[in-house]
Design brief:
Layout: H1 6-15, E1 20-24, H2 30-39, E2 47-51, H3 55-65, E3 80-83, H4 86-94, E4 105-108, H5 116-128, E5 133-138, H6 146-155, E6 160-164, H7 169-175, E7 181-187, H8 191-214, H9 224-228, H10 231-238, H11 247-266, H12 271-278, H13 284-289, H14 297-309, H15 318-333, E8 338-343, H16 346-357, E9 369-372, E10 375-381, H17 387-393, E11 397-400, H18 405-417, E12 424-430, H19 434-459, E13 478-482, H20 490-496, E14 500-504, E15 511-512, E16 517-523, H21 524-533, H22 535-546, E17 549-555, H23 566-575, E18 580-584, H24 587-598, H25 606-612, H26 620-623, H27 626-633, H28 643-649, H29 653-658, H30 661-668, H31 671-682, H32 687-691
Parallel strand pairs: 1-5, 1-6, 2-3, 2-4, 4-5, 7-12, 8-10, 8-11, 11-12, 13-14, 16-17, 17-18
Antiparallel strand pairs: 9-10, 13-15, 15-16
Amino acid sequence: MPRMLEYERQMLLEAVGVNCLMISAAGLDIERVLEALLRSHLDPRNLVLVVGTGTELEQRLADALGVPSNAQKVNYDEGGVVFVTARVLVVDSLRDRVPLANVTGIVMLRAHAILAQEAFALRLFRQRNPNGFILAVSDAPYRFSSHTVRKVMRTTFCDNLFLWPRFHSVVVSALSVASPEVIELHVKMTPTMVKIQTALLELLSFCVRELKRVNPALLDDLNVEEALAAPRVLQRLLEPIWHQLGPKSRQLIADAKTLRTLLRRLCQSDGASFVAQLAPLRTSEYAQRSAGWLLLPAAESLFVLAKTRDGNEKEICPKWSALADVLDEESKENADTKILILCEDRRTCRQLLQYLSQKEVTPEEDQTFFMKGQCHVSLEPLVSPLEQLLIAFDPQIIVLYDANIVAVRQLEVFQARHPEPRLRVYFLIFGGSVEEQLYLTSLRQEKNAFEALVKEKAMLGAGEVSVEVGVESDKHGIVLVDVREFRSELPNLLHQKEVRVDPITLKVGDYIVTRDLCVERKSVSDLIGSLNSGRLHKQATAMQRNYKRPVLLIEYESKDISRLPMQRLQLLTMMFPKLRIIWSPNPHASAEMLVELKTGHEQPSLEHAAASHRYDTPLMHEQFDTTMKEFVSCLPGVNSKSLRRVLCRGGSLAELFCKNESELADLTGTKSTGASLHMALHKALSPHLQQNTTRPKKQPLKRKWPSKKT
C-alpha cells in the first residue's frame, strides 16, 4: 500500500474510536483512509461491520484487505472486518445472529443517503452496544444543509463533525508538494455551435419561465443555472414539492433535462452525431408529448443550424482538432511516450478513436488504443478511482477531454503520492461555453456547501445533536414481519413504538399482527401492478383462507390520489367480503394503526403462522368442479369451514348417500350438522305427493259455441 498523505493520516487519527460524521471533498480518495482504518481492525478479536458500500467499492476494499465480500456467506463468528447490507444486518440482529454487544464498531458509507434500514441497523446496534464506535462517511457535501446534517448526526448517533474541504490548509499543503504540470486549452466554438448553444439556452429559459408561471408560489427561486445542473441535483431541489406539481410541470422538467443533455452533446459530438440525437425530437409523438418548446422560433433555428453543421462540408468538432494537434506535437517532441486520453463515456472514446486513427470502429470492438508515430495512445472512460488505471498504464501525458472535478483532484492526489515522474496534463474545455459554466458551478456549489457546514459546525453546541436511544421492549406485543418488508420504513417505526419485530419468511401477507389478523401492505404503484398481474387476487384468496381478519394496507401520497384504481378495488371487496382496506398517508400512520389493531387481541406465534401458511395449496375453483362445489355448498349442514373437507373426503354424491349419520358428522365437524346433512340426503322430497300417487283426471274443456242465430 503506497504511503499516506498528511491529510489522510490526520483523517485516520480523527476517525479512530470516536462517533463522528466525516464529510470530505469529492476526489480526495477517502477510500485510502477507510482501507487503513479497516486494516487496523483485522484482528479476529475485533468485529467491525461495513455497511452502505457499493458493489465495486466493496470488492476493491475486500480484495485489498483479503476478506470475503458481501456476495459470499456472512460469518460473524470469525471476527475481523465483515461487509454486510443494512437489510441483512437488521434481520440477523433481530434473529440474534449478530453479537451486537461484542461488535467493535460500524462504518457507514454514503451517509448523505441513509435510508430507513440503515437507521434501523444503527439504532439496534446502539441499543445493545452503547460503547462501540460509529463512523459515517460522505464525499457529497452539497447534499447536506444545516437541517440535513443535524438529522444525519442524530440518525447515526454521531456527536462529532469533521470537515475536509479542498481548501483545508492541510490538504493544500499536502497536494502542493508535488503537483502535475497543467496546460489549459480553451478551445473556441465555431459560430454555428455558438448559435446552437444560444438557441438551446433560450429554449431552456422558456421551460424555466413556464415552470415559474405555472407554479408561482413553489418555484420562485428556480433559475437557468439550476436547470443546467446535473439531473440528480435538479431532482433533489424539486423533491420536496414534487407531489404538488402537475403533469405539465413534470413534462417541462423532463424537457429541461433533454435540453441539458443536448447542450452536453454539443460540446462532445460532431455535426452528424448531433443531428442523429435531434432526430427523435422531430417526431409527432414527441411533439404531442412536449410542453410546447418545439413551436418556438428558437427550436426551428436549432434544427436548421444542426442540419447546416452536417451539410456538404461536414463540420468537425473543434475539440477534436485541438486534440489531434496536441498528439501531433507530443509525438514529434517526445518519442516512445504513453498518452492517456480520459473521456466521459465509451461512446465518446469510440468517436475519438475513429477520428484520430482514421479507422472504422464498431460498438462491439473493445480496442481503445492506437499508435501515433512512436507514441502509444489509449482512450479510457472516466472511472473512480483513477489510481489503478494510472498505475497499470503508467502514462507520462494525460489529456482530460471532458471537464470533471473528481478526475482533476484524483490526478492531484496521484501526483502527490507518486512525485516522479511529473505528469503533464492537458485540460481541454470550450471557452465561454456551458461546459465551462457547469464546471465552475460545481466548484462554487461545493465551496458554498463547505462554508455553510463550517458555520453549522461552529454553532453546534455540546450534546445538541444527541438523541434518546431508548431500550428494546415488547410492551405492545409481537408482530411477525416478512423479511422482504425490511426494505421499507414500517418495521423500524414499529420497533420504535415498543413492538417486538420478528423477521420470518411469510408466504401469506406481509405482517401478522394478531393470531387472526394478516396485513398485506401495498404502495400505489405496487397496488396497480398487483391488480394488473392478478397477484393481489391470489394474495387476498390466501389471506381470506388462512385468517379471519385479512387486511389490505394501502400507503398513498397526495400526488397518487388521482392514480388510485377505485373501481377495481370495489370489485375486489365484492369478491372477498372479509377483506378490509385501510388507507394510510404515510408509514408513521401505518405504524399507529397496526399498534391499535393489536390492542386487546391474542399475540401471533411463529408456530401458528407456519401451520396456517398454505399458499401453495391449489385454489378451490382449480381443485374441484365449480358446479359440484356450488351444489355441495348449498346442502344443509355444509358451511365454509367444512366445505373443503366434504369435497376432499366425500368422494362423490353416491358415496355421500351411502354414509351414515356418524360418518357425515365426522365430515361436517359436529353431530348437528351431520344430522342435518343426513336428513337432507335421505328425507323424502314431498311426503304429501308420495302418499297421493293417483293423479286426478283432467276434466274436458267445455266450450260454448255461438248460436246459429248469431
